[in-house]
Amino acid sequence: NAGVTQTPKFQVLKTGQSMTLQCAQDMNHNSMYWYRQDPGMGLRLIYYSASEGTTDKGEVPNGYNVSRLNKREFSLRLESAAPSQTSVYFCASSTGVYNQPQHFGDGTRLSIL
Amino acid sequence: QKEVEQNSGPLSVPEGAIASLNCTYSDRGSQSFFWYRQYSGKSPELIMFIYSNGDKEDGRFTAQLNKASQYVSLLIRDSQPSDSATYLCAVNIVGGYQKVTFGIGTKLQVIP
After folding, report:
1. Which one of A25, B57, B108, B110 is CB 3.0 to 4.6 Å from B79, fit for a cystine?
2. How high is the pLDDT of residue A110?
3. Rounded to a whole number, what is the distance in Å from the CA of A87 to chain B's nearest CA?
């Protein structure tokens, strides 16, 4: 019972490099989310996908792009990484119904040098 | 004003005591409230959720909701050292889909 799977778990990049964080869920959830978590800032929503085929900006979308590849997969891309994007990134999914919780992946710890 | 506010702590309680974690929110239309536990270096995991005013109990955990005062709390009875973690309050933002706003979390330390 995998739930939400994120890859990679750790990554170190140089400024200006690009990379894609992958997320897949096997719970048949409609909605998927990308958050970043920084000390003292809590979880902040980057992008979300309310349903397959739709994506929308969250609180902190600058510097990121997303793709909802299918119902299971939601990827986050950093086109030109900056040190300010050093963070822990979490993917989450939910049924999309207002009273249902989100389920989180294990996170990706990303360092930009 | 932040949409969801929590005291970042740390909140220190002795083993066996009751830990009380509080959260206030600004949107009166908020409908669903969630408590997550996050151990250091790990991802958030759901502990409880509550939708209606009053108390909801699950084992050692009790969630309390007061919509008139716009606060939600989590009580942990018989606190154990293994309860030491950061507790995140999450509040559903009114809209056509499920999106929540998280508080910064309260760090709980249970002292043996």
Report:
1. B110
2. 97
3. 12
What is the DSSP annotation of B35-69?
EEEE-TTS--EEEEEE-SSEEEEETTEEEEEETTT
Is the Cβ of B7 closer than 8 Å to some Cβ of chain A?
no
Q: How many CA atoms lie within 13 A of B28 on its CB side?
A: 2
Confidence of residue B2 (pLDDT cuts 50, 70, 90): low
How far is the C-alpha of B47 from the C-alpha of A101, rounded, in Å? 10
Q: Confirm or reject contact between A42 and chain B (CB < 8 A).
A: yes
Residue B80 touches partner A, C-beta closer than 8 Å: no
CB contacts < 8 A, A to B, total: 58
Structure confidence at residue A100 as a pLDDT band (50, 70, 90):
confident
